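The instructor's notes for this session suggest beginning with a concrete chain rather than abstract definitions. Hand out the sequence below and ask the class to guess, before any prediction is shown, which regions might be ordered.
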Amino acid sequence: MVPDISETLDALLARYVAGSLPAPVRVLVESHLAIKPESRAFVSRLEVLAGGELTGAEPVPLGGRQDRLDAIFASPAPAISGRRNESPGILPRPLVDFVGFEEADIPWRTKLPGFKEYALGEIDGCNASLFWLRPGRAIPDHTHDGSELFLVLDGAFNDQRGRFARGDISIADETVDHRPVAETDRPCIGFLVSDGGLRLTGPLHRKLTDIVGF
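After discussion, reveal the predicted structure:
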């Protein structure tokens, strides 16, 4: 499941270091880290602290040793620094590895005028998708039936909470009622992970206008 959205970004990064995130959320965080060097520095400090805690911990007997080792060796390595995060396009390397292609090869499907999506489906208890919004396109006012993380990969959008640009993560849940609007200079492209649907809100005339994309 997507982490409790009452968490801050720092708490989300802490859960990444602890290894407790489902696969799509882990990839979203790794992609954020590939773009934002300040977050990589924060994660590195958390890893040092976590290592210190492990060093000082009392040893305990390990049950199911071989099963645990098999799980460790089968898990993907984190990608927070170095050449693995480099990519010639707007998709960070962890996301390219996850979806299997670069930006130019994304098989977009039009959902609404000026609004395209590539849905990866349900993975590890989460719904994951790539989104493309034409410049100036608004998403109708809505709130959420669960938790939602949206990583901006290119362009930017604004809502009642402020501006979200490349590398920023929008964190929303049922307490957030917003109307994201892509900025007018370029399309807004992002990676979304959620564990629930959304419910349209707002006045009917604006809802209809936003749906048809005027």
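Then share the key points. Residues 1 and 125 are 5 Å apart (CA to CA). The mean pLDDT is 85.
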